[in-house]
PP4R1 phosphatase
Amino acid sequence: DIIPQPLLDQYLSMTDPARAQTVDTEIAKHCAYSLPGVALTLGRQNWHCLKDTYETLASDVQWKVRRTLAFSIHELAVILGDQLTAADLVPIFNGFLKDLDEVRIGVLKHLYDFLKLLHADKRREYLYQLQEFVVTDNSRNWRFRYELAEQLILVLELYNPNDVYDYLRHIALTLCSDKVSEVRWISFKLVVAILQKFYANSANALGLNFINELVVRFRHCSKWVGRQAFAFICQVG
């Protein structure tokens, strides 16, 4: 009753590989781009009409199609709600995490928006995987690492101090030693945000341990760039 059946059938048929070859090679990408709007119109109660189409698009051989879905998966999660997201979107999200950098950047740019929609136990499963974002297909793709640091500043609020210390601290320290100054600078802000997280949650021991680690790693560094990093961290703080 929401969308005329012939119109919906026409939309769903856009994922047919034969159409991509004979009608328009970009047709699957257009289909992927409009999918959140179609899902919103149909409502979560009719998600079953789109589920197979979404999974087909998520495994499309064209990375541009997968990239389009990666950039909008957080919007689809809001439309579907936590239960459907956990059942149907999390597996797709996990696949995008292991995809090409061109696809991974889509989920990375909205990492916080997606993770905050998950239940705490499901969200915790991603702590270890976040470290994989430090490694990229092309090491010169510094904006990827910059985006990671920027997202982690937001993601801090989703985890407890112990998880931040055990997992996110290592990523922050790695990014602070990046070859690109822009990445280092945003990472200094991340380090300070981590310290603020510890002391705001009365995790003083963790905060002190982290400060001592920063002193050893940067303040007493044999290279001037390390000592400069310590000065910048103090400046940001």
Remarks:
- The chain is about 70% helix and 0% strand.
- The CA atoms of residues 97 and 104 lie 5 Å apart.
- Residues 1-117 form a domain with the Leucine-rich Repeat Variant fold (CATH 1.25.10.10).
